[in-house]
Automatic annotation (TrEMBL):
Gene it is expressed from: MAMDC4
Chain spans, region Disordered: 287-306
Pfam family, one: Ldl_recept_a
Disulfide-linked positions: C229-C241, C236-C254, C472-C487
InterPro entries to which the protein is assigned, alphabetical: ConA-like_dom_sf, LDL_receptor-like_sf, LDLR_class-A_CS, LDrepeatLR_classA_rpt, MAM_dom, MAM_domain-containing
Entry keyword set: Disulfide bond, Membrane, Signal, Transmembrane, Transmembrane helix
Transmembrane segments: 1128-1148
Record's signal peptide: 1-22
SMART domains (alphabetical): LDLa, MAM
Residue intervals of the MAM domain: 64-222, 269-425, 488-568, 575-785, 787-945, 947-1114
Protein name as catalogued: Apical endosomal glycoprotein
Organism per entry: Balaenoptera acutorostrata (Common minke whale)
Gene3D superfamilies: 2.60.120.200, Low-density Lipoprotein Receptor
Length: 1192
């Protein structure tokens, strides 16, 4: 039954909305609000390219940084005078007042932003402004390095402009310290657009040389939407995920404030001091104030925490230690069995003597008890509001007291005091208000001690007043050495910890713990049950690292040394892994919402480990044995259990049910599916913890699976501290519905214990393709030579015989002295290949340039080595291919003329022992000539004839590279036995079984941005008449859906369609043949496209045979399943005659029906009967509709 016309668009739209039908363009155009928002929303991160992102591979929380090495990252000078900013480097002006090196590289070749080349007679300000940035998370921090090289700088200022308000993040008038200095300031939560400006003001007539480098934004991106959240996390209204401790904490962590508007938060008691003291109405020494209009105090807060604005209010105090400021709550009762929690934000800046203490004072049935110290923060925490939290368990009513004090020049502040819903107010009893309790001094001076007549900040000892600059200077001033007692030398047995103070503002902190209570280690460094400092979880929201500081020390002598004992607790992890019992030593990165998942499947053909019995698969036993014999690698996790270092999720393989009670044992592997959830970021990371090399060379082997019409790139890289990330291996596009083995040799520096990390990165190119990994193994020693080499990441171990004539190059700049303009792998100027200059100056006539592979493993059966070569237009000479075992034997010699195309070469191989392949280029002595090589592939079985393939071992040189002009989709390679989310033929044509393979394209992925997919042969020589035979398979729904398969001839003159067929519900293999002719070199192209609306239907090819120089034989009459191109006169004449007869019969019948009164309207006719299929007219052939050319 045909569908009504008005339901067709709705059905197509419905199909387009389902995951298997969604059409998503591969080229991302991020909306305005997604540009410069510290989240990579497009592949390659072009939406952040002008905001400091330059193609690095950051992990969760990693920065968006600008080191000025490539460009200014969107920062612009907006100065209004000659005193301005420009991108500069020390080597450009060696005698100038600027720095002698940059901060990034530490050399005079490094770049930075500089101001100060202009002399003037008036004070002037140079202003450098960032690009427009969008949305900053509450945890966002901005760090930079600045250098002031002269005394002419009056002021440096860092400001943030958001809407109509400009916030001062930092300001300094010196004194200036020589060298590069680091500045770290939090931005707080910023909604909408904002800009950051860095300005330098110079004195009149002074140059005021200032430099800026390494501007970094840390942890600024808001969380991206997720389909599902980890267990215990909160799912925001905008589908982002936040951790449980981020709920009701006074910060917009979701990005839409839904984490602060939950029903639970509505029962919390929050005091933000915007309208008064709220519940905290018992105060002494605290003042409610704001930044705007506040005192001109250097350490005064520039904004509050609640509103992140200079107009917001907070509590502030400059109380001295002798009279601390006290803030008291009313009485509360903790509702058993839960705790009453207080979350608060505090500010300690301007003085090392700043201190904030939280006390608990309970009211027992008798009298109030002495206050108990719950938390103490001391020292300089920077100009930032830092989150903290205390949990209170008490059977009796209690009050919470906050005591603040500071030293000269210091400020202590409070904002956003949040009491949880389990803090129940106790009704006040009529009577006088109890007085505030004040903490007493640590030690009371006895009446026998002399009066302390020293100034504040000085130490009184004996009859001396030791000034601050002489404290902890390694020279004893006091007779008893009191001035050097709390200066860092300690065994941590004293509660004062030797003067060490925790200065952490993030999720980790240093805590003094007794050994018996810490779990591990069970003793301190001396072996006794003493105390030590340990990293523990904290409630801060800023920088992740835990920091513990001594008092200010020094100056020191040149021989000063620091001795300490340290302990790392690590969990040994295996890098070798088949993922059957877990993820071993591998964990996921969290830069984007695309993640690797460990998934479960059942039976052969699903994962690689349990699929070892499948026909045609290499035996994975070698990889498993290597895994069993491989080493155990240590890993030190800087995070804490339950933190964000690891997040794993179990999910079934798409298209396969995970709940199968019977059948073979389940297997596991790692899967990256960009549709679960729809990924926005550039890619997903799967990486190891830092590893220690076991040998100078190690071999990493693994199995990979890349499948789908729009598959991206899987790459392997190695990271080593202090070095650039090194690419080891990569594959792009679909590689068929099959597991493939790959190997990479890891090279480590000799006598080096530097740790390294391995990283698998999946970069998507749309939403119609998956990536999988399995059976990763590492062993000492080098790998065998790879079976496949594209030269994209390395030279694949090829050597040049010591002469270095062959080089690996790309033509990205378009200025390469020789070589083709594009490689064969990617068909772009960015792709790499090997090339040798054959001009007489580089290689005289008759001389040979050799390219020698690493050793290949012995071959168990005959194999085919294919490669693509490119010869210059001018005769370069001869390319010879040798196999070197005990001796060198020539297999192939190519001396044909060059051209503009890459050509395919192949040799048959047999080798019972280890062997190498050698490419020799013999020069002809011609100017501007070259030979290039790309895409080497070693496959089992003999080499097929040109443009012929049964697809059992692969595509046989047929290229399925996505064609950009057609939407970027590609043909695939599969078998009936392999599970697939796309429909496909149950058996192939070659073997007639589900184990046989075929080429396949799923037309359902085609949409508004994708019109067709091409499968292209190698370049073929001109021919007067040759026959192309092939078998094809189609399967489409009834009526308005129709897939289409066409054969094109592509040459320098253009494209010529020579054959075509459409199909519906043809679940059988049909034979097609066409006679081709061309007066010049050409390629055969199979084009899969649509003749109607998008539909879920496959087009498959098998047993393609190109008979060069042979004409096609007409099929016998019994061949009812053959589609043959028909000659133009017969086809056109017969078809036109048939159409005329049908038209006459239709008119006569309509008139007869009208006379009988039973003729329906034309609209009813359209709804009742399907229309004729279109006829395709081509250059010299006509393809008739399927109903005419085939039996139905």
């Amino acid at each position: 039954m045909s569908l009504p016309g008005h339901l067709l668009p709705a059905l197509v739209l419905l199909l387009a909305r389902s995951p298997g039908w969604a059409w998503v363009p591969s080229r991302c155009r991020a909306p305005r609000e997604a540009v410069c928002n510290f989240v990579c929303d497009c592949r390659g991160c072009p939406d952040e390219a002008q905001c400091g992102y330059h193609g690095a591979s950051p992990t969760l929380g990693a920065p968006f940084a600008c080191d000025f090495e490539q460009d200014s990252c969107g920062w612009r000078d907006i100065s209004t005078s000659g005193y301005s900013w420009l991108r500069d480097r020390a080597g450009a002006a060696p005698e100038g007042p600027g720095p002698r090196s940059d901060h990034t590289l530490g050399t005079d070749l490094g770049w930075y932003a500089a101001a100060g080349t202009h002399r003037g007679r008036q004070a002037a300000t140079a202003v450098l402004r960032s690009p427009t940035l969008h949305e900053a998370a509450p945890s966002c921090e901005l760090s930079l390095w600045y250098h002031v090289a002269s005394g002419g700088v009056a002021e440096l200022r860092l400001e943030l402009t958001h809407g109509a308000e400009t916030l001062t993040l930092w300001q300094s008038s010196g004194p200036w310290v020589p060298g590069w200095q680091e500045l770290v300031v939090p931005t707080g939560r910023i909604q909408g657009d904002f800009r950051v400006t860095f300005s330098a003001t110079r004195n009149a007539t002074r140059r005021g040389a200032v430099a800026l480098d390494d501007v970094v934004f840390w942890s600024c991106g808001l969380p991206t939407p997720q389909a599902h959240c980890p267990l215990g996390h909160h799912h925001c209204q905008n589908k982002a995920c936040v951790e449980p401790h981020q709920l009701c904490d006074g910060e917009d962590n979701c990005g839409d404030r839904s984490d602060e508007d939950t029903p639970t938060c509505n029962h919390h008691m929050t005091t933000d001091f915007e309208r008064g003291l709220g519940l905290w109405n018992h105060s002494e020494g605290w003042a409610r104030n704001r930044s705007a209009g506040g005192p001109q105090h250097p350490a005064w807060p520039h904004r509050d925490h609640s509103r992140n604005s200079a107009q917001g209010s907070f509590l502030v105090s400059v109380a001295e230690p002798s009279a601390p400021a006290i803030l008291s709550s009313p009485e509360f009762q903790a509702s058993a069995p839960r705790n009453c929690s207080l979350t608060f934000y505090h500010y300690l800046h301007g003085s090392e003597a700043g201190c904030l203490q939280v006390f608990l004072q309970t009211r027992s049935p008798g009298a109030p008890q002495a206050a108990v110290l719950l938390r103490r923060r001391h020292g300089e925490l920077g100009a930032a509001w830092v989150r903290d939290r205390v949990d209170i368990q008490s059977k009796h009513p209690f009050r919470i007291l906050l005591a603040g004090q500071t030293g000269p020049g210091g400020v202590v502040g409070l904002d956003d005091l949040i009491l949880s819903d389990h803090c129940k107010p106790v009704p006040e009893v009529a009577g006088p208000t109890p007085g505030l309790w004040a903490p007493g001094p640590r030690s009371q001076l006895s009446s026998l001690q002399p009066w302390n007549f020293c100034e504040p900040g000085h130490l009184f000892c004996g009859d001396l007043c030791v000034p601050p600059e002489q404290l902890c200077d390694f020279q004893q001033q006091c007779p008893g050495g009191e001035d050097e007692q709390e200066c860092g030398t300690t065994d941590f047995e004293s509660p004062s910890a030797g003067g060490w103070e925790d200065a952490s503002v993030g999720r980790l902190q240093w805590v003094r713990l007794p050994a018996q209570d810490s779990g591990s280690p069970g003793t301190d460094a001396s072996g006794a049950a003493g105390h030590f400092l340990s990293v523990q979880r904290a409630w801060g929201q800023l920088a992740e690292q835990a920091r513990v500081l001594t008092p200010t020390l020094g100056p020191s002598g040149p021989r000063c040394e620091l001795h300490m004992a340290y302990y790392f607790q690590s969990h040994p992890q295996e890098i070798s892994c088949n993922f059957e019992r877990g993820t071993c030593g591998w964990h996921t990165g969290h830069l984007t919402d695309a993640h690797w998942h460990r998934v479960e499947s059942r039976g052969p053909g699903y994962d690689h480990t349990t699929g070892q019995g499948e026909a045609g698969r290499p035996d994975p036993g070698a990889a498993l044995r290597l895994g069993a014999a491989s080493r155990t690698l240590g890993a030190s996790q800087t995070g804490l259990p339950g933190g964000r270092g690891e997040r794993w999720a179990e999910c079934p393989q798409p298209g396969v049910s995970a709940a199968q009670p019977h059948g073979p044992p389940a297997g596991h592997f790692m899967l990256l599916d960009p549709t679960e959830p729809p990924a926005q970021g550039p890619g997903a990371h799967l990486l190891t913890w830092p590893q220690t090399p076991a040998a100078a060379q190690e071999c990493l082997s693994f199995w990979y699976h890349l499948y789908g019409p729009q598959t991206g790139t899987l790459r392997l890289a190695m990271r080593r501290e202090g070095e650039r990330e090194r690419h080891l291996w990569s594959r792009s596009g679909t590689h068929g519905n099959r597991w493939h083995e790959a190997q990479a040799t890891l090279h480590h520096p000799q006598d080096s214990s530097a740790k390294y990390q391995l990283l698998f990165e999946g970069l998507r190119d749309g939403y119609h393709g998956t990536m999988a990994l399995d059976d990763v193994a590492v062993r000492p020693g080098p790998c065998w030579a790879p079976k496949r080499c594209s030269f994209e990441d390395s030279a694949c171990g090829f050597s040049t015989g010591g002469r270095g004539l062959w080089t690996r190059q790309a033509n990205a700049t378009g200025q390469a002295a020789w070589g083709p303009p594009a490689d064969h792998t990617t068909e772009t100027a960015q792709g790499h290949y090997m090339v040798v200059d054959m001009s007489p100056q580089a290689l005289p006539r008759g001389h040979v340039a050799s390219l020698i592979s690493e050793e290949h493993r012995p071959l168990a059966q005959a194999a085919c080595l294919t490669f693509w070569y490119h010869l210059s237009l001018h005769n370069p000479g001869t390319l010879r291919v040798h196999v070197e075992k005990a001796e060198r034997r020539q297999l192939l010699s190519i001396s044909t003329h060059g051209g503009f195309a890459w050509r395919l070469g192949s040799v048959d191989l047999q080798a019972e022992r280890a062997w190498r392949v050698v490419f020799e280029a013999v020069a002809a002595g011609v100017e501007r000539s070259y030979v290039a090589l790309d895409d080497l592939l070693l496959q089992d079985g003999p080499c097929p004839p040109p443009a012929s393939c049964d697809f059992e071992a692969g595509l046989c040189g047929w290229s399925h590279l996505p064609w950009p002009g057609l939407g970027g989709y590609s043909w695939d390679w599969s078998s009936g036995a392999a599970p697939s989310r796309y429909p496909q033929p149950p058996v192939d044509h070659t073997l007639g079984t589900e184990a046989g393979h075929f080429a396949l394209f799923e037309t359902a992925v085609l949409g508004p941005g994708g019109r067709a997919a091409w499968l292209r042969s190698q370049p073929l020589p001109a021919t007067e008449a040759s026959c192309l035979r092939f078998w094809y398979h189609m399967g489409f729904p009834e009526h308005f859906y129709k897939g289409e398969l066409r054969v094109l001839l592509s040459s320098a003159r253009g494209q010529l369609a020579v054959w075509g067929a459409g199909g519906r519900l043809r679940h059988q293999w049909l034979e097609g043949q066409v006679e081709v002719a061309s007066t010049e070199e050409f390629q055969i192209v199979f084009e899969a496209t649509l003749g109607g609306q998008p539909a879920l239907g496959p087009i498959a090819l098998d047993d393609v045979e190109y008979l060069a120089g042979q004409r096609c034989q007409l099929p016998t009459p019994s061949q009812g399943d053959t589609a043959v191109a028909t000659s133009v006169p017969a086809a056109v004449g017969g078809t036109l005659l048939l159409l005329v007869l049908l038209a006459l019969l239709g008119l006569a019948g309509r008139r007869w029906l009208q006379k009988k009164g039973g003729c329906p309207s034309w609209g009813e006719m359209d709804a009742m009967a399907p229309s004729f299929d279109n006829i395709l007219f081509n250059a010299d052939h006509v393809t008739l509709p399927a109903s005419v050319t085939n039996d139905q």
